[in-house]
Amino acid sequence: LEKRLSQVEYLPGHYSIADIATFLWMRHPDRRGVDIEEFPSIKRWSDAINSRPAVQRGFKVIGDHPPQITMNDTEREVMFGKLQYMAR
User: Fold this and answer.
1) If 0-12 CB within 10 Å is exposed, 13-18 middle and 19+ buried, where does residue 45 land?
2) How far is Cα 17 from Cα 3, in angstroms, rounded to an integer?
3) What is the pTM of this model?
4) Deepest of 2, 5, 35, 53, by most Cβ within 10 A of its Cβ?
5) Residue 7 DSSP code
6) What distances in angstroms separate CA 49 from CA 3, 25, 61, 67, 88, one per listed residue?
7) How far apart are CA 71 and CA 82, in angstroms?
């Protein structure tokens, strides 16, 4: 991600759904033990998206703490484990 964003402003070169989806996964890097300062291109990109008026309006809707999603063990395995690749 750092390499790509050091070459372009946004992931596909222009702001798109790819940036929106990735940005949400990258939100709160400190909660994942990542120091964003180590990745200047990602930080620039994240700051640019975070400052967009539509993004700010969206965050007002969910607040700083989005709803917690709970999963049972089977659901977690389907979503993240080996079952995600099985035909159902």
Assistant:
1) buried
2) 19
3) 0.70
4) 5
5) H
6) 18, 13, 17, 21, 37
7) 16
